[in-house]
Amino acid sequence: MRVLVAAIVLVIWSSASLAETRVALVIGVGEYEALRPLKNPRNDARSMDETLYDLGFQVDMVTDRNLDRLSRALEQFAEDARDADLAVVYFAGHGMEVAGENLLFPRDAAAGDVEELKATALPLSDVVAAVSEARAGLLLIDACRTDAFGVPLADATRGAFSLEAAISPGLGRIGRADRLVYAFAAAPGQGALDGEGDNSPFAAALVRHLGTGGLELRTALTLVQQDVYDRTRGTQLPYVESGLPGLYFVSATPGELPERERLLLAMAEIDDTVRQDVERVALDADVPLAPLYGALIGSDLATLDRQQRSDKLTEAASAFAQVRDELRRLRAGDDRVTDLRAQAEEQLALGAFETARAKLTEAAEIDASSRETLKANLLKRTLSEAATHYLNGGAAQAELRYQLAMADYEKALALFGEIDDDLIPPDARQQQLAALGALGRINITIGNLPDAARAYEQQLALSQSASARHPDNTDLHLTLALSRDNLGDVLLEQGRIADAFDHYRAGHAVREALASDNPDDEEIKFALSNSYERLGRIHQRQGDLAAAETHFLDKHRLGTRMVAAQPEGYRWQRDLSISDERLGDILLERGDLDGARAHYQASLDRMIPIRDAHPEDHELKRFTSITLDRLGDVYALQNNLPKARQKFEDSLALRTALAATDPANADWQYILGISHERLGDILTRMGDMPAATAAYEAKHAIVSRLSSSDPTNVRWLRDLSVADERLGRLAHDRGDLDEAMAYYRQSLDRMTPLRDASPTDMELNRFLSFTQDHLAGVLMDKGETDAALDLYRNSLKLREKLVATDPQNGDWRFVLGISHELIGNAYMRLTAHDEAVDAYRRELSVMSVLLEQDPGNARWRRVVAITEENLGDAHLAAGDPGAALKQYQSSLARMSAARDADPDDLATQRFTAVTLRKIGAAHLAAGATDDALAAYSESLAIARRLVEANPANARWQRDQLVAYKGVVEAGDDTEDTLHLALNAADRMRERGILSHSDEPIVDALRQRLEALDQ
Known about the structure:
This protein is mainly α and about 1000 residues long. Helices cover about 70% and strands about 5% of the residues. It contains 40 helices and twelve strands. Helix 2 (about 40-55) packs parallel to helix 6, helix 26 (about 665-685) packs parallel to helix 28 (about 715-735) and helix 38 (about 955-970) runs antiparallel to helix 39. It is elongated, with a radius of gyration of 39 Å.
């Protein structure tokens, strides 16, 4: 694109190419007798008369003529054109297409019916014939001004309004004609604006660009076309058709094109998709088109994928709007500086960034010069110069030129640093704080977190002193809260969670005070809502669910009030949906699955109408897919696997459609991979291994492409390792230990260097610990227990490091407990029962703390019950059935209460059945056969009910078989019991779910039955 612009700019004017005889007829009709009058055609005609005269044309201007006089003027012009090298006709007034014929309307055009209208109009074909008499002709028709029949002047545009089906709005397309150039003010069939000033947009653009030095005629008209498109914000695009056989230069003045003209010519090469993006962003941000095209072309944004380009355009629009508003707000102490800033604002709106920066630089130089020579005015000049550099930084940021922007912000900050703090007024202090904030944001954008932290630390220190010095200044206090959040965000990215938490709380306290003092300020309320969410999520991350819930409820209540006050408020509706989802997350962690599902469903029900009302907003679709995932998680935990699968498939469908709209969008590809993974997880649980494998392989293919496109992206590499581990788990489940180990080692080899490069990244450490656990699990199954134990110990060290970094983080404490459990399992395999007891006791100590902190949390209650069972198993293996029985009974008491509270929770039912079976084994080992039989019988009764509920569940079928074995061993070895047990085994064999390892149980039962028969 830049090569094309350069080529255009370097067009060399040749005097031999200029037309030597030039004639022009300029027509303006505004005082209509029957049609609606127009305000500007006479002005347009006068302006074009002067322009064409200056370009060497012999001009005949006629205004407000009736048909007869206009026809005579056209006949005279046709005679003059016969000897001309270049002839031009310009018409301003009403015109339209009637029954397929383009007509221009003189002053006395009649509007009674279509036939009368045609009889009193000047056919455009007559004008074409007249201009065709010359060797080359140019037809400039500013006549697509709609609503010729009486719409109020405030709504005026040029063209036509349908009286009958035969009348079409605007003018129809004209095919290419030899030796002629047509230029209509608007596209065929479209209306053109009459203009709010003294001229129409088309006439004003012709005056500005038709005589641009050194440009060929068609190139000059391209400038006109793009200028009208830009200044009308995309609502009007002139139509140009050329049949010229050679080059025609309108002006004899050669030279390099100004910045604005270079931009307009480059805009002409932008494709429609990119234009639509620019127009959408400009409309949303209420900014002109040209600055966004300037950023697009100057920063090569056209090479980005569509979502990335849209994000950068939005950033440029925001930066432009900010510097525009600052230019209007900030005052200068010198009229010359004020005038230069006004000129800079105008140039920015035209996309002429370099010209605007030159104006601001000139203003800064004036201030700099005055500052040196007028010591008495030092403070005012220094502040003015600092403000100008600040504005210059905003102009560079609007063009996405980050290094240039940072240089200007640093110049502004250096000037502020020259002034005693007591002398800086509040409004100038806000500029200083805003410059520091802008430096921080740019450093985050380019990935420089240390420098971002330094900028925000300075912003915080200054805002603290400024707000203390001006306790009644609300804006300074709001900036203080913002600086806390800014610094907290960077610290959180650096893994300093506790420090980030302190800043978030301090910023939240400031906003609460501001909201109390300013109860009607909606922006403060919205900032407060975000504060509630930020605090809630950190509390949740640290395991303090009660505190997290409190903040999420505060956010929900505020959102509810705002939605009630603004029922159509799109922003607050979405914010309330987020609140529902966050509350659902809390309930999900507590094990309240029905409550979590209710909140997720409420969030979904609120979001779907918003999404449907804004189909162009892809983020709403993405948010909806996330909520569907949350619902799928709940159904999966409730063992409603078909329902879970449906939700995950619905989410996958949404994300597939999103990815199809923009295949280059990496974020959408990433969440599409997540959907395949979640669906694979649920298919695995449903036993559909081929479909699960396909889902995991789809995920693996997506993240492989992503990581190949950016090998340094930690997120993609980590997700590729997740995909490896899912495929490894499938291989492990089907007994292919070598393949499973290959996948796990591949993941470990990929993640270890990443962790070593960022040792303080706790999430990388956490992920690496899971990979080591999975690899150790394969080694356990291969009989390499000592090697597995070494990996489990390495994982334990990583998790101890996690907990030491953030002792309040419940998830990290949980995985620490899991490490102790896995080490205990390895010791059990090695028959080191005392060491196993010690490991399980450590696990119980960790898990009990979680339950003590949140006694109502069903998840922690179940975890503690499992840990007690593990400890009981170790005691039993060590030959201490009494100690084992104590742990089993404690576990049973916890889970029986949960079972009685929710009889439909089959997972809890199964858990109690297994625990009862273990109690039976402990009694049997202690010689208490009656107690053993009672426990085994109760376990069998539960197992039989579960099998009746789902005969295809292999795990429940095996539980029933093992319970029968226990009942028989405890003394109930009657013929009926043995037949029932063997019948259950036969049904398992028929279904193909009787494993080879269970055959000894069946053989023992059959032998008992045969012994009875003998």
